[in-house]
């Protein structure tokens, strides 16, 4: 039976190098803290094993990828079993030679993989050259069924797309999860930085509102230099947060701190919100055909 009250947690972490064992141990320590606080479901940030290598295009970076199952899934599966938790991780998946994905992997209180999601929307922007590394996901928008509920797991750039959140909700997701790696160009003005963060948080809070679901967002923190000359690197803006089903902020981290967040979610309240704001009842599915077109000429 699914719990009416669910304590969830996330880890906001800085990454200094590509030493996976060190980075995994840092994550493991924070996971242990959250589990000791009673969290039954915990999420790590996007690509938490290494530096964010997508700041430039370098074929050697493919050496950081791993098969699934592989060393990372063995390590984090053991943690899920040890702490009796549902654990959402984010890995650079080597599917085959020349075929790689940005993949979230979920464990449900055991070493066994409960499910995975391959990032669908892949950006290609200055400092975020992900199309060079990641093949778009081919698993669709399917929630992962766990002992704490159906988890709608999406990844970073997916968080800007209402279609992704809606399709997860339509498939029965009870909570939306977004492991993330986003930050500022250090050359941006303070006003521009404020606008960017505001847009990022607002769109995700809107997914909570439009689908009457809690939203969990784990972002990186810290500065990561670019391998490219004359590139300023990325200041990851942290500020991970947990929002309730009406978009209300339940907890939020700071910009520069390595920290954890935990919140007890009232899943009965989520059900109540769906009853008083019946968006799914009133959707005009007979009039939405044009949404599957690229543009309306």
From TrEMBL:
<keyword id="KW-0378">Hydrolase</keyword>
<dbReference type="InterPro" id="IPR003010">
    <property type="entry name" value="C-N_Hydrolase"/>
</dbReference>
<feature type="domain" description="CN hydrolase">
    <location>
        <begin position="6"/>
        <end position="267"/>
    </location>
</feature>
<dbReference type="InterPro" id="IPR050345">
    <property type="entry name" value="Aliph_Amidase/BUP"/>
</dbReference>
<protein>
    <submittedName>
        <fullName>Carbon-nitrogen hydrolase</fullName>
    </submittedName>
</protein>
<dbReference type="Pfam" id="PF00795">
    <property type="entry name" value="CN_hydrolase"/>
</dbReference>
<dbReference type="InterPro" id="IPR036526">
    <property type="entry name" value="C-N_Hydrolase_sf"/>
</dbReference>
<dbReference type="GO" id="GO:0016787">
    <property type="term" value="F:hydrolase activity"/>
</dbReference>
């Amino acid at each position: 039976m699914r719990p009416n009250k669910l304590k969830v947690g996330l880890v906001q972490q800085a990454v200094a190098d590509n030493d996976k064992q060190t980075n995994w141990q840092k994550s493991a320590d924070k996971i242990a803290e959250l589990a000791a606080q009673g969290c039954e479901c915990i999420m790590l940030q996007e690509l938490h094993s290494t530096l964010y290598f997508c700041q430039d295009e370098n074929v050697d970076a493919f050496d950081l990828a791993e098969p699934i199952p592989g060393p990372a899934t063995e390590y984090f599966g053991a943690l899920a079993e040890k702490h009796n938790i549902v654990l959402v991780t984010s890995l650079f998946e080597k599917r085959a030679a020349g075929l790689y994905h940005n993949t979230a992997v979920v464990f449900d209180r055991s070493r066994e993989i409960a499910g995975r999601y391959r990032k669908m929307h892949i950006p290609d922007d200055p400092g975020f050259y992900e199309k060079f590394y990641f093949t778009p996901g081919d698993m669709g928008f399917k929630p992962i069924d766990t002992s704490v509920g159906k988890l709608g797991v999406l990844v970073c750039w997916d968080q800007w797309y209402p279609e992704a959140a809606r399709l997860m909700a339509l498939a029965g997701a009870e909570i939306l999860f977004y492991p993330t790696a986003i930050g500022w160009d250090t050359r941006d003005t303070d006003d521009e930085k404020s606008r960017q963060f505001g847009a990022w948080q607002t769109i995700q809070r809107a997914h909570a509102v439009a689908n009457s679901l809690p939203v969990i967002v784990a972002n990186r923190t810290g500065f990561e230099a670019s391998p490219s000359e004359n590139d300023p690197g990325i200041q990851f803006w942290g500020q991970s947060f947990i929002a309730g089903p009406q978009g209300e902020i339940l907890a939020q981290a700071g910009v520069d701190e390595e920290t954890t967040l935990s919140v007890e979610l009232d899943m009965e309240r989520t059900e109540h919100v769906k009853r008083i704001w019946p968006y799914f009842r009133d959707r005009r599915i007979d009039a939405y055909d044009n949404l599957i077109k690229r543009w309306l000429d």
